[in-house]
Every structure is written in structure tokens, then in C-alpha cells.
What we know:
The structure holds 2 protein chains of 2 kinds. Chain A contains 13 helices and 8 strands. By secondary structure, chain A is α/β, with parallel strands linked by helices. Chain A has 2 domains: 14-128, no CATH class; 134-251, Rossmann fold (3-Layer(aba) Sandwich). Chain A has a 4-stranded parallel sheet with strand order 2-1-3-4, sandwiched between helices. In chain A, strands 6-5-7-8 form a 4-stranded parallel sheet, sandwiched between helices. In chain A, helix 12 (221-233) links the parallel strand 7 (215-218) and strand 8 (240-242). The radius of gyration of chain A is 18 Å and the shape is globular. Chain B is of the alpha/beta class. Helix content of chain B is 51%, strand content 10%. The radius of gyration of chain B is 26 Å and the shape is globular. The model of chain B has no long low-confidence stretch (mean pLDDT 96). Chains A and B meet through helix 1, helix 2, strand 2, helix 3 and helix 4 of A and helix 1, helix 18, helix 19, helix 20 and helix 21 of B.
Amino acid sequence: MTDASPPLIPRPSKVYYFGTCVIDACFPQAGLAGIELLQREGIQVIFPQAQSCCGQPAYNSGFPDEARRVARHQLKAFAKDYPIVVPSGSCAGMLKHQYPHLFAHEPDIEEVCRFSSRIYELSEFMVKVLQVRLEDRGEPVKVTWHSSCHALREMAIVPYAKTLLRQLERVELVELQNEQECCGFGGTFSVKQPAISAAMAHDKVNDIMQTGAARVLSTDCGCLLNIAGTLGYRQLNVPAQHFAEFILERTQ
Amino acid sequence: MTKTADAVIFERNAAKALDDGQLRRNLRSAMTTLSQRRRTLFADTEAFEQLRAQGESIRRRALSQLPALLEQLEGRCTANGIQVHWAETAAEANAICLDILRRHNARRVIKGKSMVSEEMHLNHFLEEQGIEALETDLGEYIIQLDGETPSHIIVPAIHKNKDQIARLFHERIPDAPYTEVVEELNAIARQELREKFRAGEAGISGVNFAVAETGTLCLVENEGNGRMCTTAPPVHIALMGLEKVVEKLRDVPPLLRLLTGSATGQPITTYFNMITSPRRLDELDGPQEVHLVILDNGRSSIYGDAERRATLQCIRCGACLNHCPIYTRLGGHAYGHVYPGPIGSILTPQLEGLDEAGVMASASTFCGACEEVCPVKIPFTEILRMLRNEAYAQGESEHDVKGHGYRYTTVEGLSWKSWALYNTRPGLARIGSQILGKLGQHLPMIGPLKEWTRTRTPPPFAPKSLHQLAQERGLDNDR
């Protein structure tokens, strides 16, 4: 996939890194792994300490004013013209595709669109900009893959993440039977409709267990929070891990 | 968080549906079949994308000139001998039907499948007036026997499996033997319905598309019951929502292909009826009178708002239901309203008001599966998000959806304001994440955490945030 087409943009020397709020609080190691994967390619990674959340929770819950307030804060925190790399399909989708909607009738819409055009999901950036080649140094392992809905549909970056995994020679990727079905996270949905969310997570976990995989990987830590929480509650010993952490682990 | 009445009811219904293992197995198996058939028919994704772009543009073009097209439709129908009636509310539409039926002394009415008639609660209304309305679509017939309402807009009895239908027929149809053989069950229904067709004094049907340029009413069906209802009795009443009009006859083939393909994976249905007039002098059969009832019931207010208007693009194929992870687990009855699933979730709160049905807009993870399959590209997520905004919009709201602001509470308003403050003050966030890092594993399980941990382990709050780790590693802070 990478070999034939030229990079999306010329290789930059510096990028911004948007860590996301879920990674910040619960999966900082996944966030660091993404940073290291970029640094290893000779990219200088800038992490603005002022960054916080993309604003999606308020945006999807009926509070667009609050979402805009938080979004404008990110615009200020990522003010320079560097590409912004995001280790999440969902947050990247918010920043790239939803900000222009959120600001459609606002005076700063042009600035917002320029900001949005700089957004790249991590695997997309690794494959389509850096054209990374990975060398597998790990033991043989069977893994499965959870496609977050926003990575799959809104960002359409799942093929890039899988491209990276397939570069790992001793990793066997077993697909889920219902890969395209939502895990039931949905941000605030998981606590506003807990019973439905739980039923969906339960089915997703059954699907994962059926593959016999030793791990489940994803681009999105929101889904992983839901899946890992459900696996843990059912005392099933299959780690749910961000793909960046997995790739770093196997290629060091 | 306080819960609104509609939310309490929905949660109770959802819990009941989720507990019903048989229901969930029936739904999962039916939805898998329907979505696989659709996928097979539209296997050429490029061709499908072209077709649905065409479908979308036909529907948008029709809506952009809706008042003029409705006027043209009325003119053409009238010229063809079809009597046109306008109903602003469901009650008005019911009264129009009753008036027609009374004039014909019709006490036994045979019905083809119509979701608009469900919206009107027509059967119940007629029953109160001493008129029997018999559903003749097999699925509708089954649920009517069981005293139920449709759980799906295309496949109304999809929540039932063969064995449940076998028991139902044996119990409710006089002299029906118990059998689980599908052909025999069909034969039982067929025999029952034949008699009813013969005795029907009036026929009622829905309308899939109404063509403005020719005054043609199109009716899509698979069982021939629609043709019986619209031709055998002396009077036929067709019911349509005012959004069902299309401009040209040539708009019909692509929409028909999209409708049947998206609904059941069929390239075309077994029957496709185009009704243009009552029986003419030289014709041997057909009704002497054809009436068209055009229902508004809140649609014109949807039409009036540019962003909400896309809701009316719908051609009622039900693909969004078949692919919805939530509908697939609950079925239609749990939604508690006539139109379930994603289309119900965007339509019902606008027709009935957010205070009645606003909770339906929260029955989505925004996974986008509905948008991906919609044959006329309705932007479901955008409309759902708009409805969520309206639910909290106090005073004058941007889109003026009925019942807007119903969900706003000071507590929820304040909590989102605090969230925004936290996420725009780095100093505050730094202190917050340090506290979370230290106390994260010892938080009291209340509020959202309580809901979360009913079926999951608590979120693994890390001792140090990514912010802290990035700083410790000396990452450039862009200062």
C-alpha cells in the first residue's frame, strides 16, 4: 500500500502531538509509545502542555458552546503550522471532520479549517507520510483487531493500522466476526444507556474470545477502556492494548 | 442526574428486551440475513455509491420544491379521477377515512401495509367506530393476531420466529392445526386472508412514491395483498406522508431499486403497483373510487428548517434498522414509538416533540452504521446531534424543535461548564490530573462511575498523566 503512492505531504521535521484526554488519564504509556514511534523516525515531537480534550464529549451531549470553548483552546495550544498527530481515530475525526461543522456559523471558521487540515491519525501518519517499515523482533503471537467506528468510517484509517501490523512477520492477525460493529462505548452513551452499552461490550468480548487471540489491539483508547473493563470484569485474561504500544514493544 | 419520564420508560423497555434471549436470537439471525442479502445485491460498491448519489439527489430535488410538487400531484390526481384530501393531523386523517367508509357503509376494511396508518393509530380508531380493519400483509396479520404493533417498518413481525408463529396460529385461528412447516403456515394464513379479501368492503394502503408529473401512486409489495386491497373492494383509500412525492416518473426506477435492495436485498419486489385512477368505464375491475389522503402531522415543520429537512429524504427501506447495533439488540417495541431504530430516533422527536421522545436521540453511539447504508444519504449523526443540542437549548432555540430545552437541568448545565473550565485552564487540569493519579483507584463508585462499573472494572487511572510523563522526558512544549 505504501510503496506505490507518494507521501501525502513532504516529510516534516517537527510535528505536534495531541495526546487525547483518555490516554492522558488512563493510557499514558500508549501515548508515549506513539511519541517514540515518531521520534524513532527522526521526527521532533512537540507536546504542548496547554492541550486538553478535543471537546467531543460536550459536542455529542448537547453542549456545543462548551465544546467550542474547549476547541478554541486547542487551536491556541497548537498555533504553529506543524502537522498534528493524534493516536486516536475518534479524537482525530472530531478535530479533522467535526470542527468545521461545530464552527460552521462562527467568525473563525477559516482558522478552524486550516487547523483541521493539519490533523493526522497516528497510523495514517506513519504509513502515508513517514512510509515506515517495521522489523519484528518479538515472539510469534496471535492478535485480533477492534476497529473503532470513527477510525473505520469517519477517518477510514483502519487499513493503515493493519498495514503496520502486517509488516510484523511473527504476528498473526485474526479478524473478528463482527469487526464493523460498535463495541458500545460511544463516550457518554456508556453511562447514559449503560444496559445497552454493556450488552454491546459483552458481545464484542465474546467475539474477541472466539478468535483465540492473545491480545486485542485498536487505535482508540475509548473503546479499549470499554473492552478492557468488560474483559477484566469477566476475568478474562486477554490484554486490550493500543496498537502503538504493541508495535513499539515488538520492534525495540 | 435526574431522568426524564421518556428516559425512564425507554430504559425499562430496553432492560426487558435485553433480558429476552429468544428476542435477541431472533433479531440477530434476521438482521444478519437481511444485511447479507443487501451486501450481496450491492456488492459493486462503486455502482452502489453512484446509485445512492442519484437517490439522494432525486429526494433532495423533490423536497426543494415540495409545495409546488404537492400542488401538481393534487392537480394530476384530481384530473385522473383520484380524490385528494389534506390532513394536518392524524386525527383529521382518521376523520377523513371514517367519513369515506361511512359513505360506503363499509364495516370490513382490508389493509395493505402502511406505517402512516400506524402513525394515525387508524386500526384502533376504526375499531372504536365499529369498523373492522384487517391487516393482510403476512407480517402485519401475524402481529395483529397477537395484539401487537410492528417492531420493524418493513418486516413488522421480525421479532417472532417460526415456532412462535406456529403456536400463535394454532391458538388464535379457529381450526388451525399446529405446524412448524413454513409452507403450511403460509397456507393457513392464505386461506384465512382469501376469505377476508372476498368480504372486504373497502381497501386501505400506503404509498411508497407519489409521482407529481403523472399523478401516479406507487406501491411496493411482495405478497400480492397490496394489489388485492387496492383493486378488489369498491373503494380504495391510499395514505401518504406529504414527503413521499417525487417529481418525475423517471425518478421512480432508481428509488425503487434502492428501496428493495436496501430493505431485503431484492433487485425488485414480486409486485409493484402503479395506481393512476379508479376503474375506467371500459375496465372490468378496480375500485370505483380512489382517495388519496396526504398527511402532514408535523412534517411541514421539519420541512421548514434546512438542517432538519434531510429527515424527510427517507424512503422507509429500514436498512438503518437492520444495521443498527442498538436496534439489533432491542427490536422495535422497546423504543415505545411507531418508528423505531435510527430513522425513528431522528423522526419521532421531531414529530411528537423532544419532551415525548427525546430519549430516542440518545439511543446512539454515533457509530455511523446507519449513515453508511442509507440509500439516500441521510446525515443521521448530524441530525441526532442537533436534536441533542435542542434537548438542552433553553429559550429560543436554533432549530425550534418541539419540546426543546426539556432536558436542561442546572446541575447538568453547570457540570459541562465546569468541564469546559477544567479543559481550558492548564493549571487547573494539572492539579486535577495529579489528584486523579493519586486517588484514581480509590474514587467512590457514584454517578457515571457507578453505571460504568456495573459491568466493567473501573478505568485504570494512571499514577502519572501523559502531560507529566512528556514533561519529565523533556519534550518540547512549544513555548
